[in-house]
UniProtKB/TrEMBL annotation:
Transmembrane residue ranges: none
SMART domains the record matches: WD40
Intervals holding WD repeats: 13-54, 55-86, 97-138, 139-180, 181-222, 223-264, 265-297
Protein's UniProt name: POC1 centriolar protein homolog A
Pfam families in UniProt: WD40 (PF00400)
Source organism: Mastacembelus armatus
Source domain of life: Eukaryota
PANTHER family in the record: POC1 CENTRIOLAR PROTEIN HOMOLOG A (PTHR44019:SF2), WD REPEAT-CONTAINING PROTEIN 55 (PTHR44019)
GO cellular-component term (any): ciliary basal body
Keywords per UniProt: Coiled coil, Repeat, WD repeat
GO BP field: cilium assembly; microtubule-based process; multicellular organismal-level homeostasis
SUPFAM superfamilies per the UniProt record, alphabetical: WD40 repeat-like
């Protein structure tokens, strides 16, 4: 850690044999999924006595991984042009489908867990059903590789970033591009929605992090705190913090309310390639070119802000790289700045007003999880049946060829 920050390194996972490209937490904090240039997907168990699972199946580098909202599936996107859906257990069963005609760089589940979005070097974004991996539609306006794709929290919008130096916002229902944000100095490696759904943040090759309002299309914040390419970012679920991973070998925590750098973490040797908050925001994980996965405890106080903070239309705030002393723990002010306002999220206020009882919610979650597994099992069986049919067909064709050959010899 840097300065007086007490952000503790909780766990340290070693097992990948090349750069870790992507990291994601399961919804219950029991598992972490990672992808790597070593072509493997790894599932790490947070309990120290439980060993990790290594999933071999992809024929080339795994670029992106994500848990489904229920945590019962893991999707992985690869340079081998395929996407795989895994059941994250010891059996390591998966279904595979050829999603694109080039490297698949990004995979993302919709909030309801029913759809998958994929982004590729073939310059397209595609949307699929999770059940049976049925192709739904394609978004085709980018003119270079598409690096990242994400659904908005309400699943109505899709955001994508490309090497054509644009970030595009799409309406999922009309399939139209609503707006293009231009990244003049570089392209965005990674883009994501703020939990409120009103803003997006982009991690850029020009070493900056930018935050835009998607309603006014204005840039709200511009962080120039890294000295290397910014590879990944993740919003805290409450919306008041943003973590960033950079090739300058640091992870930085930005306070979006105050518009300033909060911590700098030095843990990785070499570029930090991916970073993600857990679903509750209690932990975050980072992965790097040093083949290591690190899990940290978030010790910044989120209780000082009401349920969710929401970005407002204000003039752009720009944060320059701070002197080395600023990497120490900067105290959080308890008052919200004019830049962000404290707004309770509608969903959270509904829950506190006596929405779905916790026991029913957990039962429903369990049922959804079981349905996910059943769906996946059906898909796996269907794939096996197809393979068996193909083999039988091949055998019959061979038999017929042999028969014809023997017949010919008899005739001769």
């Amino acid at each position: 850690t840097a300065g007086k920050s007490t952000t503790p390194l909780l766990r340290h996972f070693k097992g990948h044999r090349d750069t870790v490209t992507s990291v994601d937490f399961g919804c219950n904090m029991k598992q972490i999924a990672t992808g790597s240039m070593d072509s493997c997907v790894m599932i790490w168990n947070m309990k120290p006595q439980m060993r990790a699972y290594r999933f071999d199946g992809h024929k080339d580098a795994v670029i992106s991984v994500q848990f489904s909202p229920s945590g019962h599936l893991v999707a992985s996107a690869s340079r081998d042009k395929t996407v795989r859906l895994w059941v994250p257990s010891m059996k390591a069963e998966s279904t595979v489908f050829r999603a694109h005609t080039a490297t698949v760089r990004s995979v993302n589940f919709s909030g309801d867990g029913q759809m998958l979005a994929t982004a590729s070097d073939d310059k397209t974004i595609k949307v699929w059903t999770v059940h049976r991996q049925k192709f739904l539609f394609s978004l085709n306006q980018h003119i270079n590789w598409v690096r990242c794709v994400k659904f908005s929290p309400d699943d109505h919008l899709i955001v994508s970033s490309s090497d054509d130096k644009t970030i595009k916002l799409w309406d999922k229902n009309s399939r139209e591009c609503i707006h293009s944000f231009y990244e003049h100095a570089g392209y965005a490696n990674y883009v994501d929605f703020h939990p409120s759904g009103t803003c997006i943040a982009a991690a850029s090759t020009d070493n900056t992090v930018k935050v835009w309002d998607i309603r006014s299309h204005k840039m709200l914040q511009h962080y120039q705190v890294h000295s290397g390419v910014v590879n990944s970012l993740s919003f805290h679920p409450a919306g008041n913090f943003l973590i960033t991973a950079s090739s300058d070998s640091t992870v930085k925590i930005l306070d979006l309310v105050e518009g300033k750098l909060l911590y700098t973490l030095h843990g990785h040797q070499g570029p930090v390639t991916c970073v993600a908050f857990s679903r509750t925001g209690e932990y975050f994980a980072s992965g790097g070119s040093d083949e290591q996965v690190m899990v940290w405890k978030s010790n910044f106080d989120c209780s000082e802000y009401s349920d969710t903070v929401r970005l407002q239309h204000k003039t752009t705030s720009s944060v320059q790289a701070a002197p080395s002393s600023a990497t120490a723990h900067l105290p959080l002010n308890s008052h919200p700045s004019a830049f962000l306002s404290q707004v309770s999220s509608d969903t959270q206020s509904q829950a506190s007003d006596g929405g779905v009882p916790p026991s029913l919610a957990s039962t429903l979650e369990h049922i959804i999880g079981q349905l996910d597994i059943l769906t996946q099992t059906v898909s796996i069986l269907e794939q096996r049946l197809t393979l068996t049919e193909d083999k039988l067909k091949e055998c019959l064709e061979n038999q017929m060829e042999i028969g014809l050959h023997l017949q010919k010899r008899e005739d001769d």
